[in-house]
DNA sequence: ACTTGACTTCGAGCGCGCTCGAAGTCGTAG
DNA sequence: CTACGACTTCGAGCGCGCTCGAAGTCAAGT
């Protein structure tokens, strides 16, 4: 199990160290363990959370929403609520994907025709 | 052919009038015709451009990139460049869609298991 | 003629998601 | 022992995408 510093973990997940600190402070990932000097020490568990947050961000979920999800997921009795949030999120994503599919088709058609209607 | 005011056109495309003026000023849509009093008059053509811009925005394309595309599309000799931009955009979208597919699958699995791993 | 109301431009302001600079603390290398 | 570099917190700053308020113009209704 790796014990990474903030900048190592950041690089590992494609973030800057500053952004990663921000993520923790904003609640996008649960609090990270510290060594005796107060420095963050990241384990596999933390990396998984970070990657999850990065994924949600890349799909356009807002910081506040992700933080809410993480907060709920941390609670022992939060399972039901957590499920609701996930279902809602999947629904949003599928709507987004439908738009995407449509747009890809339209763009493909334009390209195929080598003609772009204004 | 409809001759809509800015607020009518905005409503039609799911924007605010303010946002729509901003879109024109920022070049997300080509300049709109005016009546003698200087008020914008939107036709079908303009609505199509607006809907196109809205679509691109909803897919996360930045204002500057959309403006660039519109600028190129306006030029008589811009076809090649326009094609390049569209191809690039389709590629980005397909990458995004792959992420989306993956994430939907993962979330579905979590839901199916009625268990969320941290 | 006058009010009403939707339009115009302009510049400032705002929320989000970081990003950066300052000032301080710690541990290892020389 | 000292110096260096990476870490810490904090608050301010920034770019983006609007959003709002002010001040003015115009056209239609009474």
What would you say this structure looks like, in words?
Two copies of one chain form a homodimer. Chain A is an all-alpha fold. Chain A folds into two domains: 1-74, Orthogonal Bundle (Multidrug-efflux Transporter Regulator, Chain: A, Domain 2), CATH 1.10.1660; 78-118. Helix content of chain A is 67%, strand content 0%. Chain A has helices spanning 6-13, 17-25, 44-58, 63-74, 79-113. In chain A, α1 (6-13) crosses α2. The longest helix of chain A has 35 residues, at 79-113. The termini of chain A are far apart. The mean pLDDT of chain A is 88. The interface between A and B is medium-sized, with 33 and 32 residues. The structure holds a DNA duplex (30 and 30 nucleotides).
List the helices and strands and how they pair.
The structure is a homodimer of 118-residue chains.
Chain A: H1 6-13, H2 17-25, H3 44-58, H4 63-74, H5 79-113
The structure holds a DNA duplex (30 and 30 nucleotides).
